[in-house]
What does this fold into?
Amino acid sequence: MPATTLEQLKGQTVVVADTGDFQSIQKFRPRDATTNPSLIAAAAKMPEYAAVVDEALNWAKSEAAGKSADEQVKLAVDRLAVEFGMRILQVVPGRVSTEVDARLSYDQQASEAKARQLIAMYEKAGIKRERILIKLAATWEGIKAAENLEKDGIHCNLTLLFGFHQAVACAEAGVRLISPFVGRILDWYLKSTGKASYPAAEDPGVLSVTRIYDYYKKHGYKTEVMGASFRNVGEITELAGCDLLTIAPKLLAELDGMTAELPRKLDPAQAAARGGDKIHIDRALFDKMHGEDRMAFEKLKEGIDGFAKAITELENELKPRL
It folds into this structure.
């Protein structure tokens, strides 16, 4: 029986599950898993996870006894992300990504403090920090927070990454991993051009990740590239060979049902010829390039706003259950 496309992909790329539903993770046996506020909020609404939510609420009430309901519910949301993370780590052999509150994306000190708080929760539960990636939005403040955290052995996943300037700044900061959002880049170009679709090889999100991958490999950066936010399997197969790809269960199932041969598309050996010249990004150049990249500017803001809204809605849903 021929190998499935998913099995072939696992031979070239680390496959990561993009979900907070740890029951679905078991089916596809990824190495790692990622979560975000929207995924956690969706999983928290599933009846099968009611006990997980109750556990987080009870923990927060105990830890924040005597404090306001608002303070307790904020702590409960953090704890819920950690509770899901701990359960995910029972079914994946590698790492889980847990996100810092998106409302802190432009506050470096608060982001660092929240990251250390999340790591402390994991370590108190017996989970080593090597198995956790702290997710931070790839704002300048988020990147600088990650730079400091990495120096203390707290590894970071810089998310909501849309522009090349964000990727270069992350590499220079020594972050462990970045998550370029392939599908959301495509969304922007479809809307701005009026096109109905792009061929997979010309997909703007695919081209963005390919450029970043080649640049990193050519110049010897250790930061891992993990394509994320896919809209179709064509985007995934065009990035076969990327360091990691984080994929939603629906698309994992689609790949698992395919048997087409999967050629490798990204390869360090080819990067030297395609990676471009090395550049240095300081705050001024970051701001300049970000302002000139309308897609990155708009999608970063939209992404932060969306994740912040998901957290606020989750807090509002949990508060009555306190």
About this structure: The chain has a mean pLDDT of 95.
